[in-house]
Amino acid sequence: MKYLLMIYGNQEKWSSIKPEDWPSEIAKQDAYNRKYAATGELLAAYGLADAVAAKQVTRKDGAPVVSDGPYLETKEYMASFCFIDVESEERAYELAAEMPWADINPTEVWPVLHEFAPDM
User: Fold this and answer.
1) pTM listed for this prediction
2) Do residues 8 and 76 make contact, with C-beta atoms less than 8 angstroms apart?
């Protein structure tokens, strides 16, 4: 069963981390990623840019219209996400709970209902 793990953040949280602590915090996430990539459960993990870099795209007369984003006005935003493939829903919850910042930063677990994997 495949799941999307959505990890949220906000500028206040990121600013509370001392600059000298960032390398060790990133190392914790890298260790998590390597651990579950090795088991075959982690298919992909991506960290996203700050919300100020996001854009909203719509279409007008067949052409893209790009404006500042994100669309939703919120303090929290999706900071990173992972795709996992695990044996059960319970296992997905276990992997979410093992995220390095799970004690202070919740992870949403979304079942993947449809998949398109192009031949590459």
Assistant:
1) 0.82
2) yes
CA distance 97 to 99: 6
Structural tokens at position 36: 């579950």
Q: Where are the domains of the chain?
A: 2-111
Per CATH, the architecture of 2-111 is what?
2-Layer Sandwich (3.30)
Ramachandran angles phi, psi of 95, nearest 5° = -65, -40
Listed residue (48, 52, 53) closest to 7, CA to CA: 48
* CB-based contacts of 111-118 (< 8 A; 24+ apart in sequence): 111/1, 111/2, 111/3, 112/1, 112/2, 112/3, 112/4, 112/83, 115/2
The distance in angstroms from the start CA to the end CA of the chain is: 22
Q: What percent of the chain has pLDDT over 70?
A: 93
Q: Is 23 exposed, middle or buried (0-12, 13-18, 19+ CB in 10 A)?
A: exposed
